[in-house]
Amino acid sequence: MEQAIRFYKTGAPEVLTLENANVGEPGPGEVRLRHVAVGLNFADTYFRNGTYPIPLPAGMGVEAAGVVEAVGEGVTNVTVGDKVTYTGFINTLGAYSTARIIAAAPLIKLPEGIACETAAAMTMRGLTSAYLMRRIYDFKAGDTLLLHAAAGGVGLIVSQWARLLGIRVIGTVSTEEKAAIARAHGCDETINYSHEDVAKRARELTGGVGVNVVFDSVGRSTFNASLDSLKRRGLMVCVGTASGTIPPFDPQLLAMKGSLYLTRPALADYIADPAEKAALAGEIFGHVAAGRIKIEINQRYALRDAVQAHHDLEARKTTGSSIFVI
């Protein structure tokens, strides 16, 4: 019997339950996919706690990799035996499972040299890093980036990618252990926000000028410091809200702090076009396959340990990527 994590009400990690599941056969446009590994992302906690409202009961997780076991009528992009990966939003919810029926459209065939565990650890983080590095801002060698959560999954990929492009990265971390990890993966300097003033230190490291861009995945607790770290006409990219959503503010604040730019992108809008999705996937998978960017899987869990995995994630105990091994 197959198994899946489901939840019937929003709340703490304990609302997640492991249940037996009857998968069945794929319908038109669908495949039956046997998972090898499932990605654990901070966005999963938003579905669980109600930040992202969805009809309940529901499955959990939006990213996984595995092997196609059966295809429904009209499926042409994959065949039985293909190794594939996927990520998305509500259209892929239900990844915390041993096997599932899923629409064929979101599936990405894995290139040679990319294992299913690696894919499950990097598809969402990799595509997010790809649009941040290749679509949000026209980076040039010598630019400076302030990167929050530098030792996290996206942080480690972005740091390595930035190094390839000659971008100076200042990463924020909460511990000296995470600082060492961030520096080993491309951060030029780190700021420990547990005892350092982020904006003050960022200014010091840039000779008072400020940084070109901030990638802020933390949100509420770092928003003001991020704005204060930017140079005149710099770009603030709100890419996540791990500490809570950002309170409403007067846009005049952006003018007062140097005619700043601000954007709040979502991955879904950068992979909605199949051609753009393929291009971004090709870039990140190409870097990983060639060894230019390494994916660090630092936490592995069994599906039955989903509650503990969510506790670890929210307590910021994790570094790099986390996966469920099926």
TrEMBL record:
Classification via SUPFAM superfamilies: GroES-like, NAD(P)-binding Rossmann-fold domains
InterPro entries, A to Z: ADH-like_C (IPR013149), ADH-like_N (IPR013154), ER (IPR020843), GroES-like_sf (IPR011032), NAD(P)-bd_dom_sf (IPR036291), QOR-like (IPR047618), Quin_OxRdtase/zeta-crystal_CS (IPR002364)
Keywords of this entry: NADP, Oxidoreductase
Enoyl reductase (ER) domain ranges (all copies): 11-324
Coiled-coil regions listed in the entry: none
Pfam family, one: ADH_zinc_N
Molecular function (Gene Ontology), one example: zinc ion binding
Record keyword NADP present: yes
EC number: 1.6.5.5
Superkingdom, natural source: Bacteria
Annotated Gene Ontology cellular component terms: cytosol
Entry annotated with the keyword Magnesium: no
CDD domains membership: QOR2 (cd05286)
Family matches, as NCBIfam families: PRK10754.1
UniProt protein name: NADPH:quinone reductase
Species annotation: Alicycliphilus denitrificans (strain DSM 14773 / CIP 107495 / K601)
